[in-house]
Amino acid sequence: xxxxxxxxxxxxxxxxxxxxxxxxxxxxxGAIEGKIVEPRSxxxxxxxxxxxxxxxxxxxxxxxxESADTAPTKQSGVVYGExxxxxxxxxxxxxxxxSKDLAALNEMIxxxxxxxxxxxAEQKHVPG
Length: 128
Hints:
- By secondary structure, this protein is mainly alpha-helical.
- Helices cover 62% and strands 0% of the residues.
- The chain is built from four helices and no strands.
- The two termini are 32 Å apart.
């Protein structure tokens, strides 16, 4: 929605502050996303070129735990706790960016008479 907004506003000097705020929001959210998933990773070989992030590490841990016919090891539990903690930090930053930065951008947009940007509905995930 932010990219579509930027295209719609173009290079009009009156809307330049909105475009700059949208760029700042995209940069901030991109940094948060980059700590959860590796957005440059598109193929199976890309983890060799780009470091895997928290989401892929959780998948790898799940595969390790599911590969045995026994209870997860204590080490798996420790790794899970560390990964969950890292993920929660980024999810908190994501929610804060939505509630503060996106709200500020929408306020600027609203004052200009442009339709606001709505955040995507948050999906609830219960750790398994």
